[in-house]
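Researcher: I'm comparing several assemblies side by side, and this is the next one on my list. It has 805 residues spread over three chains. Same procedure as the others: predict the full complex and return the structure.
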Amino acid sequence: MRYSAWTVFKQGLTGQRGWKPAWRLPDPRPAYDVIIIGGGGHGLATAYYLAKTYGVRRVAVLEKGWIGGGNSGRNTTAIRSNYYYRASAKMYDHSLRLYEGLSRELNYNVMFSQRGMISLAHSLHEVELAHRQAGAMRLNDIDAEFLSPAEIARRVPILDMSPGARFPVLGGVIQKRAGTARHDAVVWGYARAADGLGVDIIQNCEVTGFRRGPDGAVTGVDTSRGPIASKRIGVAVAGHSSRLAEMAGFRLPITSYALQAFVSEPLKPVLDTVVLSPATGVYMSQSDKGGLVIGGALDLYPSYAQRGNMLVIRNVLGAVAAQYPSLGRVRLLRQWAGIVDIVPDSSPIIGASPVPGLFLDCGWGTGGFKAIPVGGTMLAHQLATLSPHPLAEPFSLERFTTGALIDEAAGSGIAH
Amino acid sequence: MLQISCPWCGPRDEIEYRCGGQSHVIRPGPPEAIDDETWGRYLSEKINPRGEHLERWLHAAGCRRWFNVARDTATHRIRAVYHMVEQPPAIGEEEGAR
Amino acid sequence: MSRTTQRFRLPTGGLVDRSRPLSFRFEGRDYAGYAGDTLASALLANGVRLVGRSFKYHRPRGILGFGPEESNALMQLGSGARSAPNLRATEIRLHDGLEAQAVNCWPSVRFDIGGVNNLASRFLAAGFYYKTFMWPHWHVYEGVIRRAAGLGKAPKDADPDRYENRFAHCDILVVGSGPAGLAAAGAAAASGGRVILAEQDHVLGGKLRWEGGAVDGVPADRWADEAIAALRDLPNVHILTNTSKRFRATIPPHPRICRAIGIGRCGRAGWSWQPERSNGRWSSPAMTAPA
């Protein structure tokens, strides 16, 4: 059934009894044309585009927990495409453009709010780097503008712009088309749309091994809910990618870390844009519910624990208190972490794995949420046509042998 | 806050250390004698287990020496701390575990 | 202080000091209370029952609990640079000259324009905003919704106070200083490990302070005092009061800590409903709601 103001009104009159489930809870079938392992944003988007764009009908998404329970439910919701290199810029901007039309396409309000993202410059060196970044973005046809301190003060009144500020602001770069979206809604929107096209979303279904044919190609998976056959399998499991790879007999250039995030108690609006301070690695925005959503650097040792430690909490919140001195008495509501798959050049790994029939969408590190639409697009193309999407070609696993790395450590925005 | 027992300085807070990633990575023979694929895999591949991880740590704010740690990446529990050129002690024979 | 100004105040009993009257202001009206009151107890003594509005429909709300579990009486405390949003009236200790207002209602808690949402409540069911507000795009609706959302207000000026922090380590952490917590801390300390006893209130003893009764034949209040004195004498026990919202323990699952917390779960300093912990690491994925 279609969502609209009219159906909301009509259901209000009739006691909310007519809503249909947003997605089914099917049991797994013995075989599918394509299996996607991972029921987060990337996996569900892949399933949606497979069905919608390529007409692939028998698709299953296997999720070991509940959909969106991994990094898709734990990120700080920032969406941007302010990267350096042409390959990354094109790819992330394609994602941003898909976000611009996503609510209408999925008929689900993902609340994409293009409130802009400002990256601050705290020293003359950083001002020069900011100009360089803005120039690189414009060369890649991406909107970027250098902002003066006065313009930043106008946009971010709570930022300490005084002469004695701990982190003086000498300027910054804004990408106006960047912003935030409601992360759970992105997952649910893709799930509902994919389910509507016949995709089976199977939760509480953990893959425990791969079945291979005599030629080494995949023929299916073993799961906690029984074996399922398919000759085309996509893996979109973020921080768990190495574990799946291990089951298939290969290794990835990935180390998994805990990335913490924080939200304050709900407040009346004080911040209307996303602000990043590269110097502290801390960025903040305010959700439509009123909480200040804060992110910072990794806890710098490998972890699958989905929790970080006090040291990072202190450093991140200390930076917030220093840069936004009026927030010192605001209290944190919640703190959590995801498992981010960090790659040495901070760029994703998309495409073929060493195992025939098995394809990867991983290595997004701390920046997977903004790339959900394009990640799904690229993996769907690969699974449907067995060849890489043009946007995905530079990001193959091969680059770690050929040396054609795409070093977006700066673009990824936080210290790795 | 992790507490790690430096073999020379004793238990210190995690803030004093820096993690150097996966340990026991053996560098393959002279680079000119190795094919690109082997070299690429040496540079980039990681075990990245969910479970016991053997990793290097530097006591950056103390004695500035490197040592090895056997630590569980899911629970963060440290099973053993041992010297750089040693192998990890067998399970049950650890010293310095917390 | 005349009884007529605090109609519901009992003449004796409780933890207030009737020899030390205080005055405070709630929603622009002046009231009287005593030292030892929380804002909530003082409001109840004065017969003030309407203390807040529900988040979405702005329905009238009264005091529900007596500690951190309070979900209705959320206050904006004070004004200016030291104003603090979203504090619970049940946790605010009354001081002379205290000023408080309910959050998220305008112009006042008694007459709140937001109550119009209640008229439309049948249309504003849970998650309705995912099903609409898409055309032409979200920006058209976002401003109004952002202003309606949020509870208290962050101060406009820089926080004038400075804070210290330090990290502490222990072998056994006991959360809660009611009868179970005090007993657990004593037993834990006897085992020789380093013990931290954390209590969210400013006094130790939990229900021993207000439920009466006896422990091992000793009146509860006195048993508490003796147990606390014994703990204070021990060099390996560290007692922290006023410690909950500001206390976050990153605890690797360790058998000794698990058991101690199991024993120490009691009274008001329980584990399961504190916001920081309810989404914490020990709930299984099936129990933890996505953020």
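Model: For your comparison table: The domain at 30-108+183-255+345-412 of chain A is CATH 3.50.50.60 (FAD/NAD(P)-binding domain).
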